[in-house]
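Structure ticket #2291
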Amino acid sequence: MAYAHSGCRPTRVIHRKEDAANPRTRTRHLPQGILHPIDVIGLAVVGTGVFFYAASQLNTLTLILAPVAAVYVVFYSFTKYITWACHLFLGLALAISPSAAWIAVTGRLDPEPMLLTFAVTMWAGGFDVIYGIADHDFDKQYGTNSFAKRFGIGAAIWTTRTMHLLAAAALLVLGVWMGLGFYYFIGWAIAIVLLALENSLVKADDLSKLRSPLFQYNSVISMSLLVFTILAVKL
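Resolution: structure written out below.
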């Protein structure tokens, strides 16, 4: 939570002008004046302090890398102004967590969490590519960047599918590599079915389901992987 407050909260402050101008986001708390930027920044400062304190209680490598993580999760917010690859930066900001947790527990970084970080980057970054389609026209008008703006809606859809295929492959390899067993692959199969279902909703000539509730199934995917991984380890 502290990690989230140090990065996600400043993101909304950084993008508050775009949020106010974008019909999709203008009802958020900052554009509506429900929250003041100072309030959000204050929460981020407190969260960052808790984050650094927690890191100091773990091990040396965790403490050394804590500033890198804190800076990165703020930096990625600016990539929307710089490059169409901003989706990958967001995906990596979320995907740092598995490797960070591994370092926190073991005091080292091994290949296994790095593979999981790659999988999460492809998963989260891929969805951000397709979510970016919703702001395709706004990005063109406002001058912000996205994959869909640079390469087109059709290319964005197929790129998301490719990234999710890579995520699925990485998770499969991870399960085999770590010998996680039968239950893990049940969770993996559930996740893949849901990913395929979500990707089937959006087509270049039919964006009507872009905001479908099925796009909320990411939480189901993550929980399925978590629960069945725990079962695979414990049983």
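Closing remark: The chain is about 75% helix and 0% strand.
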